[in-house]
Amino acid sequence: MISNKQDISPQAIEESIKDGVSYLGGKMWLDLSSPHVIFFDPHNMMGIISTNRIGYKMVIASLPFVKSINGVETLLIPYKTTGSLKKAKSLIRSR
């Protein structure tokens, strides 16, 4: 995530992602994908978004629609798609 503000909460990020999914795919895709921010490191501005196999492409496609979080201009950049939380955490530690 690229932002000029460091105090963005994971809940605000999750709500913005859900708004983006809802905007792109509607309520049906929001219910199917059910995106959640399960880890966020405010120091490195990196996090993990959890979703299911059905909706992961919709979540990735909706990230450009997240223009701001709590009024702060933000750019969400997907780094890697993995199948496990353990692998995702190791990727964040390695960066």
Automatic annotation (TrEMBL):
Pfam families: RNase_P_Rpp14. Gene3D superfamilies: Ribonuclease P, Pop5 subunit (3.30.70.3250). The keyword Transmembrane does not apply. The keyword DNA-binding does not apply. InterPro entries: Pop5/Rpp14/Rnp2-like (IPR002759), Rnp2-like_sf (IPR038085). GO terms for biological process: tRNA 5'-leader removal. Keywords: tRNA processing. GO terms for cellular component: ribonuclease P complex. This is Ribonuclease P-related protein. The lineage of its organism: Archaea, Thermoproteota, Thermoprotei, Sulfolobales, Sulfolobaceae.
